[in-house]
Amino acid sequence: ATPLSVTIGTGRGARTGVLYRSAEALQMAHTVDTIVLDKTGTLTVGRPQLEGVAAAQGFTRQQIIETAAGAEAASEHPLAKAIIEAASVEGLPIAQASSFSSITGAGITAMLPISGGSQNNPKSVEVIIGNRSLLVDKNIDMKADEAIAHQAETWAKQGKTIVYLAVDGHFAGVLSIADQIKPSSTHAIEALHKRHISTLMLTGDNEGTAHTVGNEVGVDQVIAQVKPEDKATIVKALQQQGHTVAMIGDGINDAPALAQADLGLAVGTGTDVAIESADITLVSGDLNAAVTAIDLSAATMRNIH
Ligand code: ADP
Ligand code: MG
């Protein structure tokens, strides 16, 4: 492309919400044959909300929300925010947790004060919240509660994220949290397929939820229960198979994959770390801008404006 057409392409991009960080990004975007997309915050809006609670024997719905919110108070995760918001909407007290520890891509553990202790000798319980594997790793027995397992499965099939809760080593119940799919996602995926680009959705979420969301937006392939560090490994594997790969993501955990990809596209509504790791910023978060980014690149290389 001539310097003039690069300038024109960059300017047209900026006006339509596509910020190219380099001339190279503009020139190569149309060569991409595979696009890897993050689910939460990229294909979905990224503002999950609590929709349902299923309590195990001996626990109430209120106890579950209260306990989960207290334990999650120090977490920055969107799921944590959904739980804390639900507790405050319902006017429930949020206790101050201590010894908070986060297990990226799995959940958190924390100690939560409970009544019955004295000032000198406060009582607290250990709370574990996260995906099913985290509770399995912590040796929490969830087999006794068939009804909850069934409810969780039903919710997951509807595309909800299921968060599991354990208190003092006992399974306490599950929370169903829903994140809306962006209205633009389905159209953008279809437009990419028309350009013979294949699509792959990655998520740390469970299989059931991931496949429901993946089917709804129409991506070619879904990989669920992906650990944050594995996103970049998957991009690299595709490159080693000879693909020219773009990655679209919004989170801190997407940054290594954005950097590894031949073309990294960050959703502008996402984290600064993702934006800094990317070659292109999609200002609005509308995924159709990714299609524009590719079309502008093709037009630039043909010197067509
Ligand atoms: P995604 O790839 O969808 O952005 P993450 O990798 O952040 O998801 O997390 C993967 C899964 O781990 C979540 O779907 C959830 O089940 C669990 N998880 C992670 N962090 C938390 C948290 N703070 N509270 C509860 N569950 C969590
Ligand atoms: Mg995300």
Automatic annotation (TrEMBL):
Belongs to the cation transport ATPase (P-type) (TC 3.A.3) family. Type IB subfamily. It is found in: Cell membrane. It comes from Bombiscardovia coagulans. Its main location: membrane. GO terms for molecular function: ATP binding; ATP hydrolysis activity; copper ion binding; oxidoreductase activity; P-type divalent copper transporter activity. This is Transporter. Keywords: ATP-binding, Cell membrane, Membrane, Metal-binding, Nucleotide-binding, Translocase, Transmembrane, Transmembrane helix. One of its GO terms (cellular component) is plasma membrane. One of its GO terms (biological process) is copper ion homeostasis. It comes from the Bacteria.
